[in-house]
Amino acid sequence: MNTKSHVQRKSPETRLIIKLVLFPCLMFGFGFLLIPLYDVFCDITGLNGKFDLSPSVIDAQSLIQSDTALSTQQQIESHQVILQFTAASDQQEIWKFQPAQSQLEINTGQQYKTYFTLHNPTNAVMEFTAIPSISPGLAAEFLIKTECFCFQKQVLQAGERVEMPLVFQLRNDTPKDYKKLTLAYRIYAAPYRSTAHVR
């Protein structure tokens, strides 16, 4: 009888210990999966102006359609748009990531080039992934990027500072209601691991 009572008294304590151990593990797992889950959510809903960075196959028909669309755009009158740039990182107090220009007044249908600077002040080689988004989100389909540091991961040596180019244009058929857009980049850092020789 005493043994049964002793087990019953211990049972709530055991359950509490299990909960205290499981909760941090679940939170860590949720944080680890947050970025890919967010990407999937944006892909499904089209929210937050997420861009599709996956490689695509370009065939002859795609090129013909692209040329036709470009010809149509050239017939549409160009108009001005203010494009603002913002930069953020998962650890803003460590990684020095910022746009060279806070905003540009651009004409649709014309190509522009700007830069973002990134500094790795640590003593380790780091790998950075840049995730772009645009606001309002529906404007994503009108922004054409021909060169962007977000197309591939960036590897920075210890103490290295780089200027990363961004070449883009807004299509002429961008709705005139979009008078001001915000193009944001957020970087995520991780230690660089490779068996190959680091540059």
UniProtKB/TrEMBL annotation:
Transmembrane segments annotated in the record for this chain: 20-38
Q: What are the coiled-coil residue ranges?
A: none
Query: What SUPFAM superfamilies would the database entry show?
Result: Ctag/Cox11
Q: What main location does UniProt list?
A: membrane
Molecular function (Gene Ontology), one example? copper ion binding
Cite the InterPro entries for this sequence.
CtaG/Cox11_dom_sf, Cyt_c_oxidase_assmbl_CtaG
Localization annotation: Cell inner membrane
- Keywords associated with the record: Copper, Membrane, Signal-anchor, Transmembrane, Transmembrane helix
Q: Which GO terms describe its cellular component?
A: plasma membrane
Q: How does it sit in the membrane?
A: Single-pass type II membrane protein
The family database entries (Pfam families) matched by this protein are listed as: CtaG_Cox11
The protein's job, in short, is: Exerts its effect at some terminal stage of cytochrome c oxidase synthesis, probably by being involved in the insertion of the copper B into subunit I.
Q: Which family does it belong to?
A: Belongs to the COX11/CtaG family.
Q: What is this protein called?
A: Cytochrome c oxidase assembly protein CtaG
Which organism is the protein's source? Oleispira antarctica RB-8
